[in-house]
Design a protein that fits this description.
This protein has about 300 residues and is of the alpha/beta class. The chain has 3 domains: about 1-130 and about 195-215 and about 290-300, P-loop containing nucleotide triphosphate hydrolases (Rossmann fold, 3-Layer(aba) Sandwich); about 135-195, Histone, subunit A (Orthogonal Bundle), CATH 1.10.20; about 215-290, Crystal structure of tRNA isopentenylpyrophosphate transferase (bh2366) domain (Helix Hairpins). Helices cover about 55% and strands about 5% of the residues. The radius of gyration is 19 Å and the shape is globular. The two termini are about 15 Å apart.
Length: about 300
């Protein structure tokens, strides 16, 4: 850890005309949370989450959200800011995060962004110009009808044919994200990848990752984490969310870990099959994250 602290100190001591931030990135289950807490305690600063599932209230166990014991008094931002059935765009994340960063800089604190959602991190790191766009509910319903008549994979392949770069960053079962991307194409004539136009950088950034390149070890950690989630009450959590009146098809509950448990509740798979699906889904997600974060490696060296 001292090597990391030395790298942080060198970064902070190096003069820059831009305000500084630290980004901790990496695949799921690689140890980002622990690293962020260690650095935040060392610097006496705060952490901004960059996780598109941890924004949701009630979804704690299945998203690997930091616990009260882990948080150690470190202030965290961008957690529990939406209900599981609410829409939340990358543009909204960017705007709210910029406001938090500005506030932290005004208080002489170095913001730490920590998470594995590449679009969130990119929107801040590369200052993408994200045009605001109101939802087209009629077009979304049309796409959802196609999804229901076919399946999630069919809709994802539609997107993949038009915007391969973005499609490969999301799971076919994340149909809300797929529909949103197709909607953007329909309304603007441009893909999400094309619309992510970089502007002049706002920050001097130190990229850090706890991932050591050992994929076999990462997969072992992922499998173990899923077992821990079940031990820590994942099934009770999903049941509780449903009992609160949230539809099983709402945005939050269609993500990895939740949709599989709902399938188990519906008798569509056994418990062991449910666990195996979640483990495989997270391993596949980790692969996509590793591909996405290759662009950060230059900043990490």
């Amino acid at each position: 850890m001292q090597i990391i602290f030395n790298k942080v100190e060198k970064f902070l001591e190096t003069p820059s005309i831009l305000p500084k931030i630290i980004i901790i990135y990496g695949p799921t289950a690689c140890g980002k949370t622990a690293l962020s807490i260690s650095i935040a305690k060392y610097l006496g600063t705060e952490i901004i989450s960059a996780d598109s599932r941890q924004i949701y209230r009630h979804m704690d166990v299945g998203t690997g959200k930091i616990t009260r014991e882990q948080i150690q008094g470190i202030p965290h931002h961008m957690l529990d800011i939406r209900n599981p059935d609410e829409e939340y765009s990358v543009g909204e994340y960017q705007k709210e995060t910029f406001e938090i960063i500005q506030d932290m800089h005004s208080r002489k604190k170095v913001p730490i962004l920590c998470g594995g959602t590449g679009l969130y991190l990119d929107s801040v790191a590369f200052h993408f110009d994200i045009p605001p766009m109101k939802p087209d509910w009629e077009y979304r319903e049309k796409l959802d009808k196609i999804r229901c008549e076919k399946d999630n994979e069919y809709l994802w392949k539609m997107l993949h044919d038009l915007d391969r770069e973005y499609a490969e960053t999301i799971h076919p079962n994340s149909h809300h994200a797929v529909i949103r991307a197709l909607e953007v194409l329909e309304k603007t004539g441009k893909s999400k990848s094309e619309l992510r136009v970089k502007k002049d950088p706002l920050f001097d950034i130190l990229f850090l990752t706890p991932y050591d390149g050992d994929r076999a070890k990462l997969y072992e950690r992922i499998n173990a984490r899923i077992e821990e989630m079940f031990e820590n009450g994942l099934m009770d959590e999903v049941k509780s969310i449903l009992e609160k009146g949230y539809n099983s098809d709402c945005k939050g509950l269609t993500t990895i870990g939740y949709k599989e448990v709902i399938e188990y509740f519906d008798g569509k798979c056994t418990l062991n099959e449910c666990k195996a699906k979640i483990q495989q889904g997270n391993r596949n997600y980790a692969k996509r994250q590793l591909t996405w974060f290759r662009k950060y490696e230059e900043g990490n060296n």
